[in-house]
Amino acid sequence: MNLHIFKSIAELNENLIKYVIEIANQSIATKGRFDFVLTGGNSPKELYKEISTTFKDQIDWTKVYFFFGDERYVLPDHKDYNGLMAKETLFNNLQTPEDHIFYFDTTLPAADAAKAYKAALDKHFGEEEIIFDLILLGMGDDAHTASIFPNTELVKSIHPTVESVWVEKLDTYRISLTAPLINKAKNIAFITFGENKANALRHVIGDEQKDYFIYPAQLIKPVDGNLDWFVDDKATSFLDL
Would the pLDDT of 91 be above 80? Predict the structure, then answer.
């Protein structure tokens, strides 16, 4: 695990973009494409805008395929739909063709949407194992990541797949890659900043005795890949560095 600490969000984003560019170009050179899993929420918005404008020419985007680590169970035109956020901040700038974007179909029942997404992954990877080149993850102040929330059934999942889950505290369903599927990735990068993340980060990184039900982000441990945390100094204020 590599911990990268920055004094500002702008500095964090700049370094994370360079990291993405390096992995993207390496993946394209090695296998001819870059399978890139995006995170949702507010944290990556500036990152997506910057990489698709200022740094646009540093990746061959025609060879990039985009996926999502999770999705909120709202219709695709809803402001909280992660796919819509990515479209407005990233895909529109890149003029990404629709067949290079793997959205969750939230017009389906949640369980069916999860099955449909897994089927789409199976088709894309074909005979290959589903191993993403890079997965971006955020972390909530409750230590959830993707839609693996504390004390939910998704914490227990042992299969590398896509599942729907009822999140009691949000009174809604979510759809998410499971931790075992995430952990197959070649590279995983967390983007985490702000004082409100400090307590969760202390437990996720610092606790020797793990409690996955309380701190689900502890589940993220690549089987045969790299794990990097891109954080600001506010988020590390409770860490013993």
Answer: yes
